[in-house]
Amino acid sequence: MFDTHCHLNFQAFDTYFNEVIKRAFDAGVKHITVPGTDLETSKKAIVIAESYENIYAAVGIHPTKDLSTESLKSVIYKLEEIALSTKVASIGEIGLDYYRYRSSSAVQKQFFLAQLELSLKVDKSVIIHNRHASKDVLDILEGNWQNAYEGRMVFHCCEAEQEILNFAIKHDIFIGVDGDVTYDKEKMKFIKNVPLELLVIETDSPYIIPEPLHSKKVAIEKLSETTLKNGLRLFGLT
């Protein structure tokens, strides 16, 4: 299994970090990607990744951070510096958040676009955060689409919207499935229509806690094997 989105770089894990890592690997997790949400957590993700062969970092500025047009250039410059690490597999998580945010949509879009461009420059995949902003996210992606994004982008904790799924299928974008699929009825319906070859598994730990329910009728072994391969393809690790 590949946990493609786990915030091991957050303070919630500091006290039990080694125990959490051991428990994950003992449970059959073979690879983990640790996404950053700002420069500090991105650097911490790299430090963690450098300590474990099968853990990788993603670096990025989350849209809920306190962003400004004035800081954009310097922040992207610093992000590019750390993104060059061989342990960085992705730029993320990046995107738009109109539910819980401190910065205007205009500033969020500037950071989103700049980081999309950075992903091409440093040749990394992309982790997309989208909350209540699907139209603008899709408009930006459609208007700035490059073939290099195909098979190297994921809609993290994907919104259960048909437009998102249509776009993902059209452009070979992965769909991140989290614990909420076990109790969110709309997510349950949505996930049944996602092609298995586009599914990746995320815990989004320490946030989303799953319930013991199987909503997609696929053998666990096949699901684990296929999503592992998908995760490796997403992050260019094959």
Order of helices and strands: EHEHEHEHEHEHEHEH
Number of domains: 1
CATH topology: TIM Barrel
Q: What is the CATH homologous superfamily assignment? A: Metal-dependent hydrolases
> For the largest beta sheet, what order do the strands appear in spatially?
1-2-3-4-5-6-7-8
Shape: globular
Instruction: Report the total helices.
Output: 8
**Residue share in helices?**
40-55%
Average pLDDT over all residues:
93
Q: What would you report as the Rg, rounded to the nearest angstrom?
A: 17 Å
Q: Mind telling me which CATH architecture this is?
A: Alpha-Beta Barrel
Strand content: 15-25%
Total strand segments: 8
Poorly predicted sequence stretches spanning 5 or more consecutive residues = none
Give the biggest sheet: 8 strands, parallel
Give the CATH level 1 class: Alpha Beta
Structure classification: alpha/beta
Distance between the ends: 15 Å
